[in-house]
Amino acid sequence: MSDPTVRGIQTAGRISRLIDELKLDIGERVLIINRISGNEAETLEGIAADAGLYLAGTIPNDPNIFEYDLKGRPLYELPPESRSVISLFGILDTLHVP
Q1: What is the pTM of this model?
Q2: DSSP 29
Q3: What does DSSP assign to residue 92?
Q4: Over 90: is that where the pLDDT of 10 sits?
């Protein structure tokens, strides 16, 4: 998971390489970028590829998340019609989980 910044994506790439160096038994590794505010997904996908990562999807900026965090409410209580919840479940549906 990364925010939509070059530094965040590069950090995710470094973590992925560290997993390789430590020979950790991790199955499928994918990147999800959250807090997307516009049409930058294609550009971010290229940055992710340059960092050696597969971008599984993006989650749009969702004011509900800020509101829930501000009030100390858990995010699992977000309403199912929330943009972020819809996007996350769409991404999860595409992943191959044994």
Answers
A1: 0.88
A2: -
A3: H
A4: yes
Distance between CA atoms of 56 and 94, rounded to whole angstroms? 8
What superfamily in CATH does domain 6-94 come from? P-loop containing nucleotide triphosphate hydrolases (3.40.50.300)
Of 58, 67, 66, residue with least CA distance to 86? 58
Q: Find where tokens 């340059």 sit.
A: 50
61 contact partners, CB below 8 Å, separation of at least 6: 35, 36, 37
Phi, psi (5° rounding) for residue 78?
A: -55, 145
22-11-71 Cα angle (round to 5):
115
Of 62, 59, 51, whose CA–CA distance to 34 is shortest? 59
